[in-house]
Write a structure and sequence with these properties.
about 400 residues; alpha/beta; FAD/NAD(P)-binding domain; D-Amino Acid Oxidase, Chain A, domain 2; nine-stranded mixed sheet; six-stranded mixed sheet; globular; binds flavin-adenine dinucleotide
């Protein structure tokens, strides 16, 4: 049995903690929020997850919401006409090979924290800093930092060679709503593109009050969709969403005409710089700690990949730890572990970067998919496994 400390109770940290616990390890989890604080707090993500990542939760038996969360069977993509916004260059649907789902992280993380405690795990509520990490390193065999986008990530050096960007590429506005008119297609997720303006990503989800829809607005910096302010009232969030839909995505306006927030905390805005970091940080004592998921590879949410990558990272780190037996978790093992994750994650970063840049091959492929069911299905499958884009959309990536 190993003593392992995990800092950050999010998708990757909780999944790894529960997996290690099930395999007989002694896990200490440091979270800056309790289950109750997650449940009553603000939304954090849109967190659509695809089959490949969901399988890693299923394998641990921690897929607690598969029956209650709405299934998303189709990906719909559209591109507005740059000169005539009322019309579109394409508007197609591709079918996922297995359904996707989105479970509000307020629900998921709160339930998982409680499960971890019920199973005898040690949970400490604290805003961990370097001194906390030193103390954890004193009496644990391994310290994993899974603190998402928190300040603690700064101890991990940015990797300029692997980071495609050095600043945020989109201004983000997010709301969870009821009242979407889904017509006869309640099981579709949407990525709608307004050229040179931004994107609207929307799909069904499960929130604290039950099924809902999430709407994520991705505006080009300093453009007309870069308009969200943290001091907006709940009403201003909804009014802004309706205005942006009717102005920049008018072909979707009927779908969102009667939306209302699911709850007062169902709003979020901000921006993040897509960044890849070195996976091992040295504490002042010289001891190494290992970064995971968003700490080491954070992407813009336009491609809806972060939770998926976090689940796959947790799955890989779990197997690496279990396979390591009694050997020490040194910096070499940590670096090798991350490199195995990067073999997958670089496809995610590359695909996300191409979407953000609106590279011609991606835009042309999206438009062409309007005339090809196979291509539309290939897009849907690519979200489930971005490595498959390497065979046709981005052949220069291996
Ligand atoms: C607007 C938006 C929409 C998104 N939509 C999607 C999507 O549709 N699909 C998808 O796959 N991904 C999406 N993502 C990304 C996804 O939410 C993240 O990539 C994923 O949650 C990362 O998992 P993680 O374990 O690395 O970090 P997180 O899940 O963020 O967990 C980190 C945890 O660490 C805690 N923490 C931070 N600092 C400390 C500290 N010092 N001490 C203790 N605890 C700490 C945090 O409170 C949090 O609980 C979206 C992100 C955003 C911002």
């Amino acid at each position: 049995m190993k003593r392992i400390a995990i800092v950050g109770a999010g998708q990757s940290g909780l999944q790894l903690a529960l997996g290690l616990q099930q395999n007989g390890h002694d896990v200490t989890l440091i979270s800056n929020r309790s289950a109750g604080q997650f449940r009553s707090g603000r939304v954090t993500s849109t967190q659509i997850m695809y089959d490949r990542a969901m399988r890693t939760e299923r394998a641990l038996g921690i897929d607690l919401w598969e029956r209650s969360a709405p299934d998303v069977h189709y990906l719909s993509m559209s591109v507005g006409h740059p000169l005539d916004r009322a019309s579109t260059l394409c508007d197609w649907s591709g079918r996922f090979q297995a359904p996707a789902q989105s479970v509000d992280q307020r629900v998921k993380f709160a339930d998982w924290i409680e499960l971890f405690e019920q199973r005898g795990g040690t949970l400490r509520i604290a805003d961990a800093d370097v001194a906390t990490l030193e103390a954890l390193a004193d009496d644990h065999d391994l310290v994993v930092v899974a603190a998402g986008k928190g300040d603690l990530v700064q101890i991990f050096e940015r990797d300029p060679a692997r980071s495609m960007f050095d600043r945020p590429q989109r201004a983000l506005g997010l709301i969870y709503v009821n009242g979407v008119d889904a017509g006869d297609a309640p099981d579709k997720g949407y990525i709608d593109i307004s050229p040179n303006i931004g994107e609207l990503v929307s799909f069904p989800a499960l929130t604290t009050s039950g099924p809902c829809d999430v709407m994520l607005f991705e505006g080009l910096p300093d453009g007309p969709m870069d308009c969200w302010r943290p001091d907006f009232s709940a009403g201003e969030f909804v009014d802004t969403a309706k205005r942006l839909v009717s102005t920049y995505f008018p072909w979707r306006a009927p779908r969102y005409a009667r939306i209302e927030l699911t709850d007062a905390n169902a709003v979020l805005c901000g921006r993040l710089a897509p960044t890849v970091r070195k996976p091992v940080a040295r504490l002042p004592s010289g001891r190494p700690v290992l970064g995971m998921a968003d700490v080491v590879v954070v992407n813009d949410p336009i491609s809806g990949q972060g939770s998926n990558s976090a689940a796959l990272c947790a799955d890989l780190y779990l197997r690496r730890i279990l396979d390591h037996g009694d050997q020490p978790f040194d910096a070499g093992w940590m670096g090798d572990t991350f490199e195995m994750f990067w073999r997958y994650a670089h496809y995610v970063s590359s695909f996300t970067g191409m979407l953000l840049k609106g590279t011609p091959n991606v835009v042309n492929a999206v438009i062409s998919a309007g005339a090809s069911t196979d291509l539309a299905d290939a897009f849907a499958h690519g979200l489930n496994d971005p490595r498959t884009f390497g065979t046709w959309l981005m052949p220069n990536y291996h």
